[in-house]
Amino acid sequence: MTKDDDPLMLHYARELSSRVETPFYFFDIEGIRQRIRDFAAVWRAHFPGAILAYSYKTNPIAAITTIFRKEGGRAEVVSEKELLWALADGYPGSQIHFNGPAKSTEALRRAMEADAAIHIDSLDELDLIFKLQVDCRPRIVLRASHLLASGERSRFGLLPDECHLALDRLENTGLSADGIHFHLGSNINSTAKYMQSISDNAPLLDRLLAQAPAGRKVSLDIGGGFPSRSASDVKIIPIDTFAKDTLRTLRNHNINPTDLTMIVEPGRCLVEEAALLATRVMARKTRAGRHLVFVDAGLDLVRSAGAMHHRVWFESERFEQHHTPYEVCGARCYEADRMPTAAVGPQDVKIGSMVFISSAGAYALVQAGVWNGLCARIYGVDGSKVFELGRDGRLPELISTPS
Ligand SMILES: Cc1ncc(COP(=O)(O)O)c(C=O)c1O
């Protein structure tokens, strides 16, 4: 355990490991609820009425997606399946934001019939919407492309000229756009990119605000991408800084924040830290002074562990007591199947000892492989109640239901 880890969650995960097979994911459901509340409170302190739309792709299991609905959040989806899951979770269509660069005709039709906000990603998509004979007014948001670090434009969304063209076409058919949206990436540990995109889109916001009938707000959706602990082992920018800088940047452009509905689409920063992957030591080796342990999980069960800062630690050990660094290797039998950073453990680590990998709650489940038939169940604790999650048909069977 490291000083950053939640002792209660570890207590329940450790207790569970004596009763069930490893590997398994373990979620702190109450922790997610609390993070949503804290995150919402921070945004609403600067933007009263700010809306949170949870990104389904980050982790679509119903036990998590429904928490957001109960906490008054909305759903952000990128496929027809996710749209149907959000409706099944009880979100009214009007509280669903439908994103994605390649929406099918059927998905668009369903979204329009449900009154979901459709985030237009290309002019072709807008044309398709015009052609669809659906007996309701579409709710349109323009997804604006953003500048990449290279200076090129992202492939997502519309170029600035295309945004204006889309608005012209909407106006010509008696329609308008509810607002604009950009999404910049994930685990972004700086506010600079967000502020740049707000500045880039200020002329578009001005146009929408000028057109909006009196009393109607224009939505500004700045997407997800807010950092979680895996973004850095040094310092994570607090969410409050994102909210404050957003307000400041809007004011710098003479945009009155009370004329806007502020929307954020968090995923990772709310669920990633709320889960760990519990694995067990199966074999030990030394190689020219290097200590290796092999665990019963493939490290693709937390795919970002190769690139981001995930902590790894041995079960029963107090982090300050041990000094032996171990390379933690997976069971998948391919070269890259090992953690990039060492875990510090006791000199005589035992076969069967638990090894925990932190920050397993975002994207890990949806990207996990089932190669070699390696399975992982999903459990969670809510208060003091421990239960199995994930048997809702939204994940490959081997992830949620091992034989
Ligand atoms: C449009 C959109 N919104 C929100 C998110 C959530 O991002 P994150 O999990 O980094 O907060 C994503 C993820 O890629 C996305 O594509």
Explain how this protein is built.
It is a single chain. The chain is of the alpha/beta class and 403 residues long. 31% of the residues lie in helices and 21% in strands. The strands form two sheets. Strands 1, 10, 11, 12, 13, 14, 15, 16 and 17 form a nine-stranded mixed beta sheet that branches. The chain has an eight-stranded parallel barrel with strand order 2-3-4-5-6-7-8-9, surrounded by six helices. Helix 5 (105-114) links the parallel strand 4 and strand 5 (117-120). Helix 2 runs parallel beside helix 3, helix 2 packs parallel to helix 9 (239-252) and helix 8 (192-211) crosses helix 9. 47% of the residues are buried. The structure holds pyridoxal-5'-phosphate (PLP). Pyridoxal-5'-phosphate (PLP) binds at residues 55, 57-58, 76, 99, 183, 186, 223-226, 265-269, 362.
- The number of distinct structural domains comes to 2
Tell me the name of the CATH class of the largest domain: Alpha Beta
Instruction: Provide the residue-averaged pLDDT.
Output: 93
CATH superfamily of the largest domain: Alanine racemase
Helical amount: 25-40%
How would you sum up the major sheet?
9 strands, mixed
Question: Care to count the β-strands?
Answer: 17
Radius of gyration: 23 Å
Structural class: alpha/beta
H and E order: HEHEHEHEHEHEHEHEHEHEEEEEEHEEH
Annotated CATH topology of the largest domain: TIM Barrel
Q: Roughly how many Å apart are the termini?
A: 30 Å
Query: In percent terms, what proportion of residues is strand?
Result: 15-25%
- Attached small molecules: pyridoxal-5'-phosphate
Tally of contiguous helical segments: 12
Q: Give the uncertain stretches in residue-range form.
A: none
CATH architecture annotation name of the largest domain: Alpha-Beta Barrel
